Amino acid sequence: MKASRLLLLLTLLCTSFFASAQQEEEARVEAKMIRSIYDEVLTEGEAYENLRYLCKNIGGRVAGSPQGAAAVEWGRQLMEAYGFDKVFLQEVMVPHWVRGEKEVARILNSKKLGTEEVNITALGNAVGTGAGGIVAQLVEVQDFDELAALGREKVEGKIVFFNRPMDQTQIQTSTAYGMAGNQRRSGPSEAAKYGAVGAMVRSLSTDFDDYPHTGSTVYTFNVPKIPAIAISTNDADLLSKLLKDDPELNFYFETHCQMLEDVMSYNVVGEISGTENPEEYIVVGGHLDSWDLAEGAHDDGAGVVQSIEVLRTLKAIGYQPRRSIRAVLFANEENGLAGGKKYAELAEEKNEKHYAAIESDAGGFAPRGFSLDVSDEAYNRIQSWVPLLAPYDLHKFDKGGSGADISALKPQGVDLIGLRPDSQRYFDMHHSAQDVFEIVDRRELLLGAAAMTSLIYLIDSQGLYEDQRGK
Description:
By secondary structure, this protein is of the alpha/beta class.
């Protein structure tokens, strides 16, 4: 009896020893592969030069524009030149909004300054004033409750000035952006419900400067469409001060934007085929479109070139993935999300199994980790990889959130992940004329690409679920 127990104990100890030794060996292999990924990207990476071409040779890429079409062809040719196993286009009908002639805005005959020109930009998808513009008194509000309290009597015939700033006390600037964003998205239609003739929104920025920031507005069905603009943060503060002494202050603005008929565009897809489960897909992506005020460098040229760099890197180091890995350059994130919706629609129609999706759409700054909209089991698995990623300064692995373009895959049960770079400077230039190639740091951009490549390698090689480990 004692001998049997001793034999059982020895068997358990040996099993535990060999299992531990196997896990240690796996960890060494994984660490070595991640090191090779970072070495390749940081010494041979091409994302920065690809971004230079996209920004400087094509520029701002509003959906439906000639620049948008040029960007599609650039993405297709680049991925074909890299020799990916498959490169193809997915047809997507996208909205076609045009800005038109230069916008103008002035404070008129103020008591303290007289007439003063201010910095504004039309909101995306907005209608324009046309020639002659709009002249009206301003009414300043912080939120929709304050607007409703004023009612039609005090709003009709006026320009509603939404002046709620991003909350500077929020450490995560994306949280502050979300808290302030409804005034831009829905403010014009809310103002129109009470008879306003125009709407102006404080730019969604953490900085105080003279650059207005655009972004989409969404008109409500059966509510009049009124012209809508954003004003720079400095001019918003100036205007608010003037209104305190001169509440009947008049304001003028002129815009010529309009929405044309939808046009054909494309998602651009590049793929490295899997060796064991080619019918399962891991997606990495960013959106190809941008606003027209600048070059769309951080938003989202960075995500586009990082996604392409993931596949280039895996190919360069000779990694043969178990599952098929796709880089998707999505169409029309900024003012419609048509590309992401179409990708998910086609995936469902074709009965494609998507294993996981990662998006980079928070700028090309130094990566800090990932946001994880995944199951509890997948979350725990990714947490087990933190020791492998910590040497590369990746330490934030928080539940919740991923990316707008991949969000349409969620109903299909796909685990979704977002790259999370340092966020403190992103909204200084987001959707403004400052989002140009020169403000992107080469090393930070490449580190983001290496981080995504490393996580995709771990997901592919180790699996997100225990019953798939090593299969």
